[in-house]
Amino acid sequence: MRTWLLGLALATSGTLAVATDASAQTQRLTLDRVFASPDLAGAAPRAMKLSPDGKWLTLLRGRPDEKERFDLWAMDTTSGEWRMLVDSKKVGSGAELSEAEKMQRERARIGGSKGIVSYDWAPDSQSILVPLEGDLYRATLDGKAVKLPAAAGPKLNAAISKAGGYASYVQDQNLVVMNLATGKAAPITQDGKDTVHWGEAEFVAQEEMDRFSGYWWSPGDHYVAVERFDEAPVGVVTRAAIGAEGTNIYQQRYPKAGTPNALVELYVMDPAGANKVKVDLGKETDIYVARVDWSKDGNTLYVQRQNRDQTVLDMLKVDPATGKSSILFTEKSEPRSWVNLSKGFEPLSDGSLIWWSERDGHGHLYRWKAGKWTQLTKGPWEVAIDATYVDEAKHRVFFLGNKDDILERQLYSVDYTKPGAVTRLTEAGWWNSATMDEAATRAIVTRSNTDQPTQVYLADATGKRLAWVSENAVTASDHPYNPYLASHRERTFGTVKADDGTVLHWEMITPKLEPGKRYPVFFQHYGGPHSQTVSRAWGGTLQQYLVDRGYIWFQIDNRGSANRGKEFEDAIWHAMGSVEVADQLAGAKYLKSLSFVDPDKIAIYGWSYGGYMTLKMLEAAPGVFAAGVAGAPVTKWELYDTHYTERYMGDPTKVPEAYRKSDNIANAARIADPLLIVHGMADDNVVLEHTTAMAATLQKAEVPFEMMLYPGNTHKVGGSGISEHLWGTILGFLDRRLAEKK
């Protein structure tokens, strides 16, 4: 599920310093303006990278008049000068995306984006490989883009090899390698067709493991490791992508919980496809290949192998010449838990490894060397599952974490030869993310807080800001949100306790409160694992629009959510829809205790897992809420995919009672409060069958409800006109239903 929070329109907002410029024009937010271009949050660049030599910073920037179309830009890190390298409207064929490309973008959470969505630097820092509308371009720093002589047709996962000699991509389900010196390209795998795929990541790897590629070049270009998967064992789901004036039927291989997965194999070969060897992944074939990495010298392939139950994660050391493997170390979960995946793995030149683990109950970094472990970070806080970066010359490892505040995320560093003191490199009061160059000498820091939407700056390894990439100051008169600052309302934070005494964090935005007046509440929730929704981060302006309309906006993070330690998350093991519901109800109880809240007008809203939670909350507590909105809700966990569902719920053939208790079907007849269900009719994530199964159950039980379906829309319902219609529908429903409460 990888955390679909809100139909991806509603996130978190915050406090802003009110504009003091008397000439600033104060305007009132409208629904149309919330979703129009330019984005009210200002510039939001994507895919930021440093060139291998550190001289250039590149990113994808949305166009002012079309915020979902992205062009490639570069900044000279010495002078700060910007230039557009590739204009997506001037380059490209305009070809329609293949279904595979559309679905891969959907799983990467960039569905609906146009123009350039990815690119890859050449190791000599002189050119960039840019896939665009079925073609490949080699862009240079002078702004020229030359189309490479690749065969026409859709291409996936385009990349340049580690030494720069080759470009590679997946076409017609085979891996194609192009010699960049000669321009000649040829597939290096041959049997990719029908259910067999080479060089791609299987569905659950993309959707649930945050792995989108299925091949990996070695340093020096001597080898390429290539995944081969066969979907033949996977059950077929007839997915109807219902559009406005037609329906496309897809026979999609979808691995429902408790059913067979794709068969995954791994091979190593040379750039011509010769000298191919099969990697020994063990006798058991019902496994997951979670991560694949090369050692610094390219002589060892590291493979993270996870068992089907996700209770064991083995680190395999593979000889690329023979394919033979051995287990370096193993992570195991407690009897009532699972092993989480992370990107916190870095092989070092001396053969040691930096590794992220929750073995002490919290996510922390360790160093493995010659079979011995050294813990690098420690304490009741979390190192984020994001990538780590290492400066081997200075023995520093860089990572993101919440050591200073559970509601913030900071960039830190620690000496991996003398662990102990952890140094914070970013400013307190912000939610940060960061990416660094290979030598970890510079960082691109992306940050926001409750006063400021996303900013991006270039920093050195001490955290010192060297240059703004996007200052995006809302106090600037030309910022899109500047005209609305005067009416922006402050966001506050607090805590309540769960029924077992666990502290839960909440956040709230209120209108300007009038003495004696009570206000309705827009109670937003997600509730699922691997997500933290309450934080000191900026996210959007839809909350402010809701507050302008007179709502209090509120959300709370329940047990089972992320960044609070393994015990906090493990509470949902084999029991989804239990403690999450209890904790959200604790939030409702707190709201009803407030003198300025109208206890009869609390409306709940959630999308994806949040939609599941809306149904669960209405079933568990009839009469507590005035109305509920369930967007793209999971209703039967047996219909959701293997890797996500079985991680938390186990195998439905072994624990059917746990599934029965966790679904929304068995107790659907208990729903007595007004309900609106929303779903995209081309959703391949939470397929439409979830909603149709729920609708049929409610109808049979004679339970009234409302429903809005969006033809052609996937799990992300939105886009020009659609976002406005979606939220107009939601708010129209709530206005009507809350008006019925006297």
Secondary structure layout plus pairing:
Blueprint: H1 31-35, E1 46-50, E2 56-63, E3 66-76, E4 82-86, H2 99-107, E5 114-115, E6 120-121, E7 127-132, E8 135-140, E9 145-147, E10 156-160, E11 166-171, E12 174-179, E13 185-187, E14 196-200, H3 203-208, E15 213-217, E16 224-230, E17 236-242, E18 247-253, E19 263-269, E20 277-278, E21 287-294, E22 301-307, E23 312-318, E24 325-332, E25 345-347, E26 353-357, E27 364-369, E28 372-375, E29 389-391, E30 396-401, E31 410-415, E32 423-424, E33 431-436, E34 442-449, E35 452-460, E36 465-470, E37 491-497, E38 503-509, E39 519-524, H4 542-548, E40 552-556, H5 566-570, H6 579-592, E41 597-607, H7 609-620, E42 627-631, H8 642-649, H9 656-662, E43 675-680, H10 689-700, E44 706-710, H11 722-739
Parallel strand pairs: 3-5, 39-40, 39-41, 41-42, 42-43, 43-44
Antiparallel strand pairs: 1-2, 2-3, 3-4, 6-7, 7-8, 8-9, 10-11, 11-12, 12-13, 14-15, 14-16, 15-16, 16-19, 17-18, 19-20, 21-22, 22-23, 23-24, 25-26, 26-27, 27-28, 29-30, 30-31, 31-32, 33-34, 34-35, 35-36, 37-38, 38-40
Short description:
With 742 residues, the chain is α+β, with helices and mostly antiparallel strands. Among the domains are: 342-471, TolB, C-terminal domain (Neuraminidase, 6 Propeller), CATH 2.120.10.30; 494-739, 3-Layer(aba) Sandwich (Rossmann fold), CATH 3.40.50.
